Structures
1.
Amino acid sequence: MKMNTTELDKKAIEKLLPHREPMLLIDKLINIIHLKSATAIMYVKKNGFYVQGHFPDQPVMPGVLIVEAFGQAAAALTAHGIDPKEYANKLVYLMGVDKARFRNPVIPDCELHLEIEAIRSHGRVWKYKGTAKVDGKRMADAEWSATIVDRKK
């Protein structure tokens, strides 16, 4: 994988993240600016694992999964941007979530765009912010922090 790639498909994301179906939420990472920003695309499907019970007659994507998708997008951006030798045997863990706001319900059968930005890093700790949109309409936003840790062998 080239460091200057500006788009990652699901297979490339799987090489960077340990998540797998059904918990791998993001389908693409586009508009990548090296270690700075990107947009993740998530296809919110009618048959998503959370739809049957949240809520049976009026399905809504849970806000906590929007936050998880933000975290996955940030982890993929960071993992893609750092030296592959440095990232070998590492994981990115979510540390905290701040200022999460859910402004409109995300209804299945849509394309959720997660615009994320790395706002600072200090050693292994990174801070991010993001906005989730459907058809250009803001659905949610948050700030969060994550850390890069050694993968247990």
2.
Amino acid sequence: MMNDLPRWKFRFENYCQALDSLTAFTDDPDALTELEKDGLIQRFEFTFELAWKCMQDYLLFTGYTGLRGPRHVIRQMARDMMIDAYPWFDMMQARNELSHIYDEKKSREYLQEILRSYIPLMEQFRRTMAAIYE
């Protein structure tokens, strides 16, 4: 039941579902239509949101307070040796650019980075959190 779980675990379960949804597109990215590519990018954006919010909830659960926004949360998770901050900051920047401006050329460049780097980082985060979920 949702109320029995700590908030970070509930958020983590939602993150895992979103990540599964994101990776469902990645078997043959060259076969994707333009609309599907845009959908993959949008799924990346909300999966990133769930990731950093899961991190924030976990940090609150473990006693940290006053961490607001993804930059502070990512920095603290890195200090706690749970993620590598630099690629997550790159991912945050990509999410920000993709969310606020539409440039098709830039979005296709980010699409390649999502497939090559960001999804593996998100998968690693899933493994890290799954190991402490129990």
